Amino acid sequence: MTSLQGAAGTGHARMRMDIRLARTFGLILLILVGCWLPALSFMLADVFVILTHTQQRAFAFCSTLCLVNSAVNPLLYALRCRELRVALLQLLQRLCVIGRCKKTTQDLPPGIHFTEESSCTAITEHEIPANGTMQLHSVSEMVNN
């Protein structure tokens, strides 16, 4: 009986993965259409009518969107991967703690002295809390803090 339950659990996991892949594909396709449709529309309109200067400038911008699509695709694939997302969050947490400035002398660890000349002392990598007191759960949390 346990082998049937294991097979059912594997099927459920497979279905979840298929749904996740379908969502990723849908997102990629939506961005592809959103980036290419305006430029293709201008190209089609250019066949039938002469574009004004303003329309030509808009077409140039829309052509840039096509290039942006190529730059965004690898980012989307990377951010949809849980392992890469977790690694990115850990890196951002570490950079945030290292780059954070200490505003008062009370915040300074022993051995580092505050002078009037510097209004801010940077935290070094060795001062990062070992217990990981700063926990972020999303990239937007990092940006908003």
Automatic annotation (TrEMBL):
Q: Where is the G-protein coupled receptors family 1 profile domain?
A: 1-77
Q: Which domain of life is it from?
A: Eukaryota
Q: Name one GO molecular function term.
A: cannabinoid receptor activity
**Topology class, membrane:** Multi-pass membrane protein
Main localisation: membrane
Subcellular location(s) per record: Cell membrane; Cell projection, Neuron projection
Keyword Membrane annotated: yes
Which GO cellular component does the record give, naming just one? plasma membrane
Tell me which UniProt keywords the record has, alphabetically: Cell membrane, Cell projection, G-protein coupled receptor, Glycoprotein, Membrane, Receptor, Transducer, Transmembrane, Transmembrane helix
- Asked if Transmembrane helix is a keyword of the record, the answer is yes
Which parts pass through the membrane? 24-52, 58-79
What is an example of a Pfam family matching this protein?
Answer: 7tm_1
Q: What is the protein name for this chain?
A: Cannabinoid receptor 2
Organism, per UniProt?
Answer: Dissostichus eleginoides (Patagonian toothfish)
